[in-house]
Structure formats: structure tokens, C-alpha cells
Amino acid sequence: MSDTTNALNDLISLLKAGESYYRESADSIKDPTVKSLFTEMASIRSAAIQELSTKIKGLGEEPAGASWMEQAREFYTSAKSLVSDKSDTLISALEEHEDRTLEQIKEAFGDIDNREAQTILTRHLDVFRKTHAKMKSLKQARVA
Questions:
Q1: DSSP alpha helices (H): ranges in the chain?
Q2: Domain with 116 in it
Q3: Given 72, 83, 117, 127, which residue has the most CB atoms within 10 angstroms?
Q4: CATH code of the domain containing 41
Q5: Total domain count for the chain?
């Protein structure tokens, strides 16, 4: 497996876990505005997963599954939300996921030597900067 495929698969793993986390969080939140935002975030991840998976298949490889580390974080946050304010706990954890997503995309640039893959990542970096800003803003609004 090439460095490009490994880097894209690492990102797909993170995005799949994040998509699942956002969808489950949307199902557990009563606030319609937050529910809508979480659903939007899951859809953005789904579109990115699809595009990155298509690129990997084009390179003759298979896309990855969800990251076990992200799944473990999701379980921890779910357990924590049972004994604290669920909305604030989920928002905080999802904002941290946004941080990890940006970090993972930036790291991937160093490993990818495929021009088309770099173009795809550049486009997604812009999208995920916006999703991060939305979650950071939501988190800050809840604290204030």
C-alpha cells in the first residue's frame, strides 16, 4: 500500500467514526438547531468519505473502516454524557473531533505524492476549517 493510500485511509477512518458520532449525537439531541447542525456535519463527512474512497479505489486499493480510537472516544463521551449535561459534553467532544480532523488532513499532505489526491485534500481542508469554526462557535456560545 502506498503512502498516499495509507494517508487517505487514515483520514477515511477518522471521518467514518466522526460521521457515525455526529449521526448518533443528532439522534440524542432535542434542540432542533443543534440536531440539524450535527446532521449537516455527518453529511459533509459522508461526502468526503465517498470522494476519498473513490480516489483510493482508483489507485487500486480498498478504503478503510472506522478508527477504533475514535470509536473508543465516542464510547467514553457517551458514558460521560450519562452523568453530565449531554449536549455540552457532545458538543465539546465533537469540537475536539474537528480539531483531530484538521490535524489529520494537514498531516496527510506530507505523505501524499498524488497530485489529484492533494487537490481533493485541499478542497476538504477548506470545508473542514468551516466545520471546525461552526463547532468552535457553538461550543463557545454554550459556555457563555
A1: 3-28, 32-58, 68-81, 86-111, 115-143
A2: 3-143
A3: 117
A4: 1.20.1260.10
A5: 1
